[in-house]
Amino acid sequence: MDVVRLNIYERLRDFKVPSSVLDAIFSNETDVKVLEDAFNSLVKDGLREDDAAEKISEMIFKELNIDPIHLETDEK
Fold first, then answer.
1. Contacts of 36 (CB under 8 A, 6+ apart)
2. 52 class by beta-carbon count within 10 Å (0-12 exposed, 13-18 middle, 19+ buried)
3. Structural domain boundaries of the chain?
């Protein structure tokens, strides 16, 4: 995994996106490219990287119908 993708992965983990979800995204080149393009587009539009990660995490939770409040704080 390159540094840019690792940065996105870690920022999304900071916003409690489960590693199993991220692993599925990052194991598919098409999916990770869409994610990377979306992240970069948000940053280019003026969002800080943390804000971009937060927006994307909200979209992931909504798409997968996950309530982040009910996630464990320490996923293993």
1. 4, 5, 8
2. buried
3. 3-65
Answer positive or negative: Cα dihedral of 31, 26, 43, 50: positive
The Cα 73–Cα 2 span in angstroms is 26
Do 18 and 71 touch, CB atoms closer than 8 A? yes
Q: What is the pTM of this model?
A: 0.85
Q: Which amino acid is at 16?
A: K
What pLDDT digit, counting tens, does each position of 22-63 carry?
999 999 999 999 999 999 999 999 999 999 999 999 999 999
Angle of CA points 12, 57, 75, to nearest 5°:
55
